[in-house]
Amino acid sequence: MKLKVLTLDAGAAGEVTLSEDVFGITPRADILARVIQWQENRRHKGQHRVLTRREIDRTTKKIYKQKGTGQARHGAAAVGQFRGGAKAMGPVLRSRETDLPKKVRALGLKMALSSKHQDGDLIVLDGAKSAEAKTKQVAASFGKLGLTSAVIVDGPEFDTGFQRAARNIKHIDLLQVQGINVLDVLRRKKLVLTKAALSAIEERFK
Question: pTM for the complete prediction?
Fold first, then answer.
């Protein structure tokens, strides 16, 4: 499969051959849904918690005598009725992480990449560099490429000038190739890969 390579100003820069094993797979909604759900479960921290009665460092001496006061029969100051006490039935640490085989995860990423190519939403750039970190200039280049909603994937490191200029543009995400994933690929309309990122992705799936 051949695909034209563009410059950042939408000029022609040759063409590249895409791997059939990575960009020529028929997407399946069920596989993509499983991978996305797995990612969402991992991202859900589940860190909301409160102190329980055993963790509250307050006196356990009986507050007042058992009978004759007309009040409830409290035996500790750590209960939720008192200021500084524990919260009854409060949230606890809970992990929502689920398991998913590596082969299914890899297949899901291939399908996400293939879907972008088949829908005509895949763009390959010769490189993503900006001599001056000017958001206005980079935004103008994105306009020439027709990028209003896109995730841009580059090699191990982004060019500093390009990163500073592009990170402020609305609906444009920057992603290093080692962190490419199904959710980020599908959440934007266009997928933009530099030649360095494309080589790294195809090498990863060899």
Answer: 0.80
- What is the number of other CB atoms lying within 10 angstroms of the CB of residue 47? 9
Which tokens in the block code for residue 28? 């399946």
Q: Are residues 182 and 122 in the same domain?
A: yes
Residues in Cβ contact with 37 at an 8 Å cutoff, skipping those fewer than 6 apart: 98
110 and 135 belong to one structural domain: yes
Among 3, 8, 5, CA closest to 145: 8
Q: Is residue 106 within 8 Å of residue 204, measured between CB atoms?
A: no
For 32-67, the pLDDT digits (tens) are: 999 999 999 998 877 788 888 888 888 888 888 999
**Token output for 85:** 């006490």
Name the 3-class secondary structure at 172: strand
Q: Is residue 21 located within the same domain as residue 118?
A: yes
| Assigned token pair, 37 | 């759900």
DSSP 3-state of 182:
helix
Domain residues for the domain of 36 are 2-40+100-204
**Which residue in 10, 35, 31, 42 sits closest to 124, CA to CA?**
10
Shared domain for 33 and 65, answered yes or no, is no
Q: How far is CA 19 from CA 114, 121, 164, 193, in A?
A: 10, 16, 32, 14
SS3 of 43-99:
HCCCCCCCCCHHHCCCCCCCCCCCCCCCCCCCCCCCCCCCCCCCCCCCCCCCCCCCC
Q: What is the DSSP letter of 4?
A: E
